């Protein structure tokens, strides 16, 4: 696919985000859109944002649960970029105009103290390179109407990233068993679902290792100080104006966020 | 109630003993109420006591929001675990069972009597000596696990087998609603959850049990071991399966399913 077509697809997504009007799936326009091309569309929009003054602060990994992979008919995760403009403070508010069709997930976030360079990063490498983990809420969102996404659609759309919240207390990875960390997600005080670390590819650290290795082919390194959202521990829950979401994690504390009308 | 409670209890006990599935009792008695069903369950429990079996403790069922919604109920149900159901050999036999499923739970060992009404989760925790991990094998005596609420209550809440873990913790040592649990079969992750999947907190399940028993003038007794309800969903078992489950802070349990 020529550069100008990649650029045109990036325009569609950027325009959808600017206007708040979802686009039709890119795969409806280009049935043959490959995963590789989709990542180039994603990178095009990220580079434009960085040029406009935003900054890359980390990465997110998506499609880490068997349920999500089945839903999209894929057998691997995907990833997107976290930007400075996506950060919401713990217990903060999100005006609905900042999002389009938001859903909320509870995750474990990693903050690195060393760079991680693929292509042979292991779980043990990730644990040794991690400064600390904290509980996180990810607000996923789609610039594609009605979330009608196939794998290349969500990849091109920055892996359906929206906003994110870090909360709780930072902990060293040696202080807990990441695979068994329990999580409860509440919406307005009601339990929506529960999860556990192993929901993300069996181990959240395995997701980070996958990411480091997947980034290698794009010449990208995970850098010290970066925040990595490692993947949802339970199903994403739709957010409505007025909703408050809280995720409580064993050992790690909680992260919370509210959605306001404007 | 016009039907014979004792005959219905015998019908269910013989289905269990003969390891065969039977037609649900509401097929013939659609008017059966929840109260009627507990009367049949009492008959069934009485028959097992007469046979010389001992009650280990009550168990709670339908404690997840998903199951309550599915059965359209507001509160869980209870049944009883007997000594012959406790499996310590590290294996269960398919030939002893009908169509077993497994779910991971947290069990409470009671240090004091607990009597409703009005008991809360905090009081339940205070009356608890230890919490331990447990794998419960449920095995409805009904065809294809198809039943209405009164059916499953009469059938002793599908109770069949239980495998307790050896890690005992004081209830205050853990945040029980945040204990993460994974359930795997032959190395493949089948289901997972956290303690809060059980009516918000496993201790809340014990409190609800005390309050439900109080309506019948009964109470939870010191020494009872209570199964609080599935943290994971129930997963179908097959011959040859090796089942493992892991609890954060409460260790692991494994068992095999033989012929």
Automatic annotation (TrEMBL), chain A:
One of its GO terms (cellular component) is cytoplasm. The keyword Lyase applies. InterPro entries: Fumarylacetoacetase-like_C, Fumarylacetoacetase_C_sf, Hydratase-Decarb/MhpD_sf. GO terms for molecular function: 2-oxopent-4-enoate hydratase activity. It comes from the Bacteria. Keywords: Lyase. The keyword Cytoplasm does not apply. It holds the Pfam family FAA_hydrolase. Residues 84-255 form the Fumarylacetoacetase-like C-terminal domain. This is 2-keto-4-pentenoate hydratase.
UniProtKB/TrEMBL annotation, chain B:
One of its GO terms (cellular component) is cytoplasm. It comes from the Bacteria. InterPro entries: Fumarylacetoacetase-like_C, Fumarylacetoacetase_C_sf, Hydratase-Decarb/MhpD_sf. Pfam families: FAA_hydrolase. Keywords: Lyase. This is 2-keto-4-pentenoate hydratase. GO terms for molecular function: 2-oxopent-4-enoate hydratase activity. Residues 89-257 form the Fumarylacetoacetase-like C-terminal domain.
